[in-house]
Every structure is written in structure tokens, then in C-alpha cells.
Amino acid sequence: AHEGESEESFGARLASELDALIMEEGPETVAAFFAEPIMGVGGVIVPPKGYIKAIQHVLKKHDVLLVADEVICGFGRTGNMWGSQTVGMEPDILVTAKALSASYLPISAVMVNQRVYDALESGSDKVGVFAHGMTYTGHPVSAAVALECLKIYEERNILEHVRTVGAQLHEGLRDRVAPHPLVGEVRGRGLVAGVELVADKRTREQFPSSLGMGTKLRAEAINRGLILRAMGDTLGISPPLILTEDEVEFLLTALCEALDATQAQMLA
Asked: How far lies 215's CA from each of 177, 219, 221, in Å?
């Protein structure tokens, strides 16, 4: 964001830049816009306020499809069945995997709305069948596991559980982790969160990449039994959906200790 720019203004500017880019390229050359509801490996980036609504307005204006990448967010990660629901996204196409089978067996899925389906159907009538079948598409063993996973999600009320422990997690991150001198921001939804490390808490100046601060903190966390993912100097937190309240407390304590240990290394 530009200096002094509000979150809403930042989102509006991004949408305006997308509008200008589509016009420059020619709307007829742009088929679709792909987006994660909450960006995962890019650093757990939550869309700015108003961004999703503004982007969707631009896409509809130019008749560009919106494709939601729900591989990470899908099936409860953000506290709703879909991350799209969490951020107010209304995709034309949705792609998902991972939690569809809880990763016990490989399976993914593509879902389309009626508009896209009708186009595929009418196009097949005109130019031939849309061939989208592969050798292992709909493999019965993977499909059986996926069906059982969906059944368990409902039986154990996983969505409500994620909302409960997710609220505990984010409260702890705000109250106990965010104030730490090394932390510039904590962000996320449900059971996905990011902790961004900074050299200067006031200016949000980043550490030189050569220091590998994210990797150092990750090592300290692992030494305390907590597995994190270092994405540059942002640490990704993505615990199992069956995480308990006691395990949230363990996670927060280990993370705080790892931050203190990393800071001590810098001062040594």
C-alpha cells in the first residue's frame, strides 16, 4: 500500500489497476481471473476490505470468469465450507483438492456454475464432445475415501469446531504474539494464519533476506515441537482441523518461546 493509504483505498486501487490492465490487453483476450480466497504459500494474505467486491465488479463488467482456488481453504480451513464464503467471493469455477480426502489419497475436483456448464454443453453440440476424462479420473477408491471424509466432517461438526478453536488461536496471536518486537503483523482466518517478522516494528522494515529470519524462527519452533512453514520472513500456521484447545495453548506458548529465542540469537 502507498503511505497513508487506507485498506479500502488500497483494495479499490488494485481493482482499478486490474480494470486498466484488462482494457489494455483487450477484454476479449482475458478468459478468467484465478484467485485464492486467502493466499496461502504467498504469505497467508487476507484480501483487503472491499477488494473482493471491487474485483468481482470489474470481472463482470468485462465478462471475465472468476476461478476460486480452494485447494488450501476448502472444506473448513477458514471456518466455512469454502474460503469463498469467508471472503464473499462468488466464483464461476471452483477447484479443490487436499481436504477433499484429508490427503489420505490423491483426488481433486472442479466445480462449475450453470453458466459455464451450459457453455460446455452447447459447445460440445457444435464442435464435438468436451473431452475432460483422464485415466484415473473419478478413481473409485479415492472417491470412496473422499465421501467418507465429507461424512466425517459433518458428523463431527468440523466447521463449528474450527470456528471455536480458530477464535482462540487468533485471540492468542493478537494478544500474545503480535506485541513481540520481532512481529510486524499477524493475520489469517480460522485455522490458517501468518506471522510476519520485521526488523523495525514501527516502520515495518523487513530483515535482509540473507539473514533467513523465517528459517531461524522455524528451527526454534521445531525444537519446541511446533512445525511451521517459513515463507520468506512470514511463518505459516496451518494446524489440523481437529486441533484441540489445549493444543492451541501449546502452539501459542511454543511460538512465543521460539520468538524469544530468535531474538536472543540476534542480540548475542
From this structure: 18, 6, 10
Rounded Cα–Cα distance for residues 203 and 216 (Å): 22
Quote the CA–CA distance of 21 and 72 in Å, as a whole number.
28
DSSP-derived 3-state class of residue 52:
helix
- Summarised one tens digit per residue, pLDDT across range 230-246 is 999 999 999 999 999 99
Cell 471424509, residue located: 149
Cell of 234: 512470514
pLDDT, tens digit (0-9, with 9 covering 90-100), for 41-58: 999 999 999 999 999 999
Q: Distances from the Cα of 46 to the Cαs of 119, 123, 165, 236, in angstroms?
A: 32, 37, 19, 13
Go through 85-106 and write b for each residue having 16 or more CB atoms within 10 A of its CB, e for each that does not: ebbebebbbbbbbbbbbbeeee
**Mean pLDDT, rounded, of the chain:** 96
The DSSP element (H or E) to which 187 belongs, if any, is: strand 183-189
**DSSP of 55-119:** HHHHHHHTT-EEEEE-TTTTTTTTSSS-HHHHHT---SEEEE-GGGTTTSS---EEEE-HHHHHH
Report pLDDT digits (tens) over 115-133: 999 999 999 999 988 888 8
Mean pLDDT of 189-207: 96
Handedness of CA 224, 228, 230, 236 (dihedral sign): negative
Structural domains of the chain sorted by starting position, each given as residue range(s) with its CATH number in brackets: 7-155 (3.40.640.10), 158-267 (3.90.1150.10)
